[in-house]
Amino acid sequence: MMMVLPKPALERKKASWLAEKIREKKIQRGLAIGAMGFIALFYLAPLFWLFDTSFRPKVEIFNVPPRILQAPPWETFRSYSLSSFQVAINRYQMHQGFFNSVLITVGAIILTLLVCSLAAYAFALLKFPGRDIIFYCILATMMLPITTMLAPLFKVIQSYGLYNKHLGLILLYATSAFGVFLLRQYYVRLPLSLIEAAVVDGASKFRIWWWLVLPLGKPVLAALAIYQFRNVWNDFLIPMILLRSENLHTLPIKLQVMDSITIAKDYDAMIATGFIAILIPIIFFLLFQRHFLEGLSGSIKE
Fold this sequence. Notes:
mainly alpha; MetI-like fold; 73% helix
């Protein structure tokens, strides 16, 4: 004969079970927050050290422990100076490298978005002979390491008179096979009803791209912009090969020049330049992170 618990006992057992589940969830949540906090600290600690050290004079860079741990924060911040940035600007023309990096990066991003968006629009929504074959050939170039293409790229840039010019570098960065692939995969999910309605209204292919496809693709365009910003801003190899003149060098090249000095290195200038080189991509990502996440995970709904 089955034993039936009294109603109060059943309610107490249910309440105990719920309390146990809530306690388990709190423990799991606490462990997850602790793990994420540890990972965040692991990545943020070097950035904080870089920020603090970039405002220190050269004699305080290698203090052990760091000065920020020896005094209250308000006293530490009061002792900050811009001497490291002055050395980087006056001796290594950091401001020139910063301007060159911004010019090349902004130009490359704008041109990449236009070129890749037009190509992706054609591959996704237009029909022409050999469309799929051409698209797969473009994808195949993603498998080739950049080092195998440096010699022919150098010859092409040189033959068009673009060697040692920012424009040659910008045009080279604008040809992104990954950008074409990313945008094409997004555009194939666009509602065909919108495209067909625009065609019925008499819109040309260019107007459909400009007024319909581009606005609907803002999230994925932002994702591509962040991806391209990271690649162009941090690139050292291609600018080093294609830019001979010192006044055209980018920030990564300036950093390498500072590091190549074997005697009496200006570590303060290196740290200040490194701080600027890292700060700009972080700011750019924070400004466009919402669109970046939408571009990676979002979709167009009918």
